[in-house]
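TA notes. Do not distribute before section.
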Amino acid sequence: MIEFNIYSLNSSNTSSKVPCSSALCEQQKQCSSPQSNCPYEVLYLSNGTSSTGVLVEDVLHLTTDEDKTKAVEAKITFGCGQTQTGSFLNGAAPNGLFGLGMDNVSVPSILANENLASNSFSMCFGLDGVGRITFGDRGSSGQGETPFNLRQSHPTYNVSITQVNVGGNTADLDFNAIFDSGTSFTYLNDPAYTLISENFNNFAVEKRHTSNSSGLPFEYCYDLSANQTSFKYPIVNLTMKGGDYFFVNDPIIVISLQGGDVYCLGIVKSDNVNIIGQNFMTGYRIVFDRERMVLGWKASDCYDIEASNTLPVNPTTAVPPAIAVNPEATSGNANNTNISGASPSITSPSRHLKTLFYALTFALIPFFALI
């Protein structure tokens, strides 16, 4: 267990409350005067989940690639939560949310507006749970890319997927999905959910887990025997708009139950939105290039960028989507194909998906929502 220090506005000698007169205050209609503290309210995709409080300005301490011994102090604005509801009361993001979206109040936007970093950042999701976040990272040569689908009312990191490959065979399927590092697992609605899940199930070797008492959020889980040290599962890969391939390195999660271990396809059925979560980003450095408006990705073990204060954490349950919008998701028709083939075997049934701490000496909120 890791003890988190609760941020205290009064204990920080660099903090200040944001007044209603600030250009970053979006709730000015709720202010009694321009000098009042600026309130905020965020409603999340999970039913009944919200956060309210006041906006605060404080210092984020970063290091640069040029001189890792010298800290860069950047003033950022964030919400100091006073009332939390829904999933926040059940363990979701116990140490807060770190805004990485396109709105002006997000950390990447503030850093870019202050000319402290390019208007782009990357997040690396290591296979062993190590993570990196690098502000100003615009990617590298040879990375895969696809354009963002922007909605002016509430822009998100939404991309188009044109094909799905399960087990080595490809099916044409056009749908949009949001790349959201604030969601542990991937959420898909139909037809994408059914196409991937049923084809995955057709070629899973182990017996499907049927217990209804385990409380798992995943529909497609498979029992592992007590002495089993390896297993195989069908590959899951995506083709993005523009033709670049996104190979899913880690679509499954191994979970220890009272009756033994199971492995599950880490996809949850969604009613209204498609979300590519952390598990599908594993093994990649994901670049959110807001200057060129493209998503980039390149295979990485996340050790090629030196960083400090990294620490893997093992969550015990799946965290619901943390996106603070209700985006419209579009889907196309699927051309179902027979699926065959499998990935190399997994040799560690006890391996669990890990959320990530990042190389920030400012330890307020290492769990992310793209808002």
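Switch to the second chain here.
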Amino acid sequence: MRVTQTMLSNNMLKNLSQSYSNMGKLQDQLATGKKITKPSDDPVVAIKGMRYRTDLTEVEQYQRNLSEVYNWMESSDSALDDMTNALQRVRELTVQASNGTNSPDDLKSIAVEVKQIKEHIANISNTKVGNKYLFNGSNTTVAPIDLANGKIAPDNNNQVLITVSKGVNLNTNVDGTQLFTGSGSNLFEDLENLVNAMETGSGDIDNFLTTLDSHASNVTAVRADLGARYNRVELIDDRLSQQSVIATKIISDNEDAELEKVIIDLTTQESVHRAALGVGSRIIQPSLLDFLR
């Protein structure tokens, strides 16, 4: 086959174009720190990157869900702590009222404070996170307790489930029905009966101590169940944090360029390109007049 000057020139231009393309890719990698800048650069890396980023996005969403779970559970635990303290104060007042030395006026004064504590417990029972009531199950837009209208028990005990991991829906709320009636009687009815007994001076006030202890034990049991679920949330949080780190590392290993290698490859390609330019200058140097001499 006869090699012409045109063939040599075309091959030289093609090789120079390829050399420019190689240097362009290396310069893009050095500037962006990424192996590819578009999917066509390496479809395998691009597809893996999409899958890894989907996994990381899911983990980040679960972590945002956990923030809601923490907020809900911590608010519930704080409300239960206040309720425990309030019941303890009612018990102290009941012990004081059961003393036979109290006059009717003394009992009425104690009854006034117990009544205020009952309303305080009702306020605690209507604790909200944002615009959601904590103790009325999944019906979070309605207050569970309304003493003014005689509503003294939640009307919904469904669980509030929040997705905290793939396939894991965690119950984040406290069952209001269990909280207020789990001891076998209604907390607010018992408090109202206690107030009436103090105001009228009728009945054996000592008997209410057992009832109050039962309600206090029930609140403690509910709080213990909440604490167990909170511990599980912390374990899930730790696991999600590890998954986030792992997913980020995988994405980095898949997409990030090794800058040291890129710099070496770019330096080598520049040397090759200079050599190609030197050879090309020799190829295109002869002209028609040089052949006619």
